[in-house]
């Protein structure tokens, strides 16, 4: 039997998409068709924020796309060396929270140490952060929140006394576009990557 998977391919340690491998174990032949493409907007504005870790209490990554935005910023403006020599260490002196092991793995690849990856979703990560950060620290903390709009609500509600920074748009936007011919209902949808100032 053949199976059609409408998703982006991801390689595991074996160099194969885990869905294809798992379905293959049951005699199913899987074909992957990526249905979305992504375009980041305003990366220079984001890079400016990323270049000044002293203005933030930490980072919160809620998706692999957020990590991709960091990588693109560093590659595009040849900041990889500056990242390795200076910025990476400064960000590692702060808390770097992530949702999920896949995102944690990608954040680790850019040299950052993570916590919270076992929480599983944005709401549980927010609960985790609130459980380890005191009320005073939360009031003083201004974290960069790198997440999809749909996850923002889950996180924002947990930081009730945190300054508005975690959900203030800083100009880094992600346009999610359905690939031509794959989705007739919607031709495109915009999501904003939200970062704290």
UniProtKB/TrEMBL annotation:
Q: Which InterPro entries match?
A: 4pyrrol_syn_uPrphyn_synt_sf, 4pyrrol_synth_uPrphyn_synth, UROS/Hem4
| Domain called Tetrapyrrole biosynthesis uroporphyrinogen III synthase: residue spans | 19-136
Q: What is its EC number?
A: 4.2.1.75
SUPFAM superfamilies, per this entry?
A: HemD-like
Q: What does the similarity note say?
A: Belongs to the uroporphyrinogen-III synthase family.
Q: Which reaction does it catalyse?
A: hydroxymethylbilane = uroporphyrinogen III + H2O
Enumerate the PANTHER family for this protein.
UROPORPHYRINOGEN III SYNTHASE, UROPORPHYRINOGEN-III SYNTHASE
This chain belongs to the protein called: Uroporphyrinogen-III synthase
Residue ranges spanning the membrane: these are: none
Q: What keywords are annotated for this sequence in UniProt?
A: Heme biosynthesis, Lyase, Porphyrin biosynthesis
**Record's GO cellular component terms:** cytosol
Residue span of the signal peptide, if any?
none
Which superkingdom, per the lineage?
Eukaryota
Keyword Lyase in the entry? The reply is yes
Give the pathway listed in the UniProt entry for this protein.
Porphyrin-containing compound metabolism; protoporphyrin-IX biosynthesis; coproporphyrinogen-III from 5-aminolevulinate: step 3/4
Origin organism of this chain?
A: Neophocaena asiaeorientalis asiaeorientalis
A GO MF label: uroporphyrinogen-III synthase activity
Q: What does this protein do?
A: Catalyzes cyclization of the linear tetrapyrrole, hydroxymethylbilane, to the macrocyclic uroporphyrinogen III, the branch point for the various sub-pathways leading to the wide diversity of porphyrins. Porphyrins act as cofactors for a multitude of enzymes that perform a variety of processes within the cell such as methionine synthesis (vitamin B12) or oxygen transport (heme).
Q: Which GO terms describe its biological process?
A: heme B biosynthetic process; protoporphyrinogen IX biosynthetic process; uroporphyrinogen III biosynthetic process
């Amino acid at each position: 039997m053949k199976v059609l998977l409408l998703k982006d391919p991801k390689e595991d340690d074996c160099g194969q998409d885990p869905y294809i491998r798992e379905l293959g174990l049951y005699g199913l032949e899987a074909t992957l068709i990526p249905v979305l493409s992504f375009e980041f907007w305003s990366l220079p504005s984001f890079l400016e924020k990323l270049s000044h870790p002293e203005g933030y209490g930490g980072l919160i990554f809620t998706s692999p796309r957020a990590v991709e935005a960091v990588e693109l910023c560093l590659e595009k403006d040849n900041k990889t060396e500056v990242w390795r020599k200076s910025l990476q260490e400064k960000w590692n002196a702060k808390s770097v929270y992530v949702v999920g092991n896949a995102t944690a793995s990608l954040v680790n690849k850019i040299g950052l140490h993570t916590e919270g990856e076992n929480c599983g979703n944005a709401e549980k990560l927010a609960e985790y952060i609130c459980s380890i950060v005191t009320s005073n620290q939360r009031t003083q903390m201004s974290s960069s929140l790198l997440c999809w709009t749909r996850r923002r609500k889950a996180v924002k509600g947990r930081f009730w006394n945190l300054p508005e920074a975690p959900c203030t748009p800083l100009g880094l936007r992600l346009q999610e576009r359905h690939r031509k011919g794959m989705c007739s209902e919607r031709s495109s949808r915009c999501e904003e990557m939200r970062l704290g100032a």
